[in-house]
Design brief:
Layout: E1 3-7, H1 14-23, E2 27-30, H2 31-38, H3 46-53, H4 66-75, H5 77-100, E3 107-110, H6 114-117, E4 126-131, H7 134-145, H8 149-157, H9 162-168, E5 171-174, H10 181-200
Parallel strand pairs: 1-3, 1-4, 2-3, 4-5
Helix pairs in contact: 2-5, 4-5
Length: 201
C-alpha cells in the first residue's frame, strides 16, 4: 500500500489535515493518538511508567499526568529518554499492527517527530510537512491548551526546526496564520488527489 508520512511542528494543523485525508478514504494511523491510548486510564504503558517514575506522574483516573511528566522530562533529558524508551517500542508495535490491517486507498502515518526520529524516510513513499510560522504555532497552542509561551517554546525547542522539516519534505501544505479553513481543505484535497493517482498507478 502507498504510504505517506505526515508531520509538522506543534500547532501546525497536521491533525486537521489527517482528519481530512481520512474523511476522503485514506487510512490514518496517528502515533500521537496511539501514545494517548497507551497512557490513558488502564493504558498498556501505565504499569511500566509508574514503576519507572513513581505515582507522582499518575493522575487520579490512572492515566499519565501529562503536566507532571512534561515538567520532569524537560528538566531532565534522561527522564525524557527513559520515557521514550518505554513508549516508542509500544507505539511501534501498535502502528505496525494497524498498518498491516489497513484497507484505505493509501496509508497516512501521522508522526509528530518523524524528522527527528530519523527512522521514517525508508518506511514511507513520501513525506508531507504541514508548515506554519512559529508565531502562529504558539498562538494556536496557547488557544487550545492554555500553556505558557515559555512552555510551548520548550516543546518547540526539542522538535526539528522549520527549516529541517522543509528540507526533508516531498510535499508541503502551507497552514500559516493567513490560511483559511477553506484554503487548507483545498490544499489537502489536492494532495489527496495526487496520492490517489500514485497509489492506483
Amino acid at each position: 500500500m502507498y504510504k505517506i508520512g505526515l508531520t509538522g511542528g506543534i500547532g501546525s494543523g497536521k491533525s486537521r489535515v489527517a482528519d481530512l485525508l481520512g474523511s476522503w478514504g485514506a487510512t490514518v494511523i496517528d502515533t500521537d493518538a496511539i501514545a494517548h491510548e497507551l497512557t490513558g486510564p488502564n493504558g498498556a504503558a501505565m504499569p511500566v511508567i509508574e514503576e519507572a517514575f513513581g505515582p507522582c506522574v499518575i493522575a487520579p483516573d490512572g492515566s499519565l499526568d501529562r503536566a507532571a511528566m512534561r515538567q520532569r522530562a524537560f528538566n531532565d533529558p534522561e527522564v525524557r529518554r527513559q520515557l521514550e524508551g518505554i513508549l516508542h517500542p509500544m507505539i511501534g508495535e501498535v502502528t505496525k499492527s494497524r498498518a498491516e490491517a489497513a484497507s484505505g486507498c493509501y496509508l497516512v502515518f501521522v508522526v509528530p517527530l518523524l524528522i527527528e526520529s530519523g527512522r521514517w524516510r525508508d518506511r514511507v513513499d513520501r513525506i508531507c510537512v504541514v508548515d506554519t510560522d512559529p508565531a502562529t504555532q504558539i498562538a494556536r497552542v496557547q488557544a487550545r491548551s492554555g500553556l505558557t509561551v515559555e512552555a510551548i517554546e520548550r516543546i518547540m525547542a526539542v522538535q526539528a526546526s522549520r527549516q529541517e522539516r522543509l528540507a526533508q519534505a516531498d510535499d508541503v501544505i502551507c497552514n500559516d496564520g493567513k490560511t483559511t479553513l477553506a484554503e487548507l481543505e483545498q490544499r489537502a484535497l489536492q494532495l489527496h488527489q495526487q496520492r490517489c493517482k500514485q497509489a492506483s498507478a
